[in-house]
Amino acid sequence: MKSENLKREINEGHYLELMDRLYVLASTLHDHCLEHPLAEYDEEIYTAIETAIEATYDAYQLVGSKEFENENENNPH
Question: Is the dihedral of CA 68, 63, 17, 34 positive or negative?
């Protein structure tokens, strides 16, 4: 999946961009799904949506750590 050409096309802005999209996704899941009356009524549905939100925030943290690693790799100081 990771080719050398693709790696060269990735720039610093891609990390922040993906983190933003993951944040929007998690916020949307929370605001429009977790707080939906059916989700509030059915514990199984609520838990499944919570799990999705947690996984989205885990991905957000992963991208942030990759951004940090990338900055350290490309910073000789």
Answer: negative
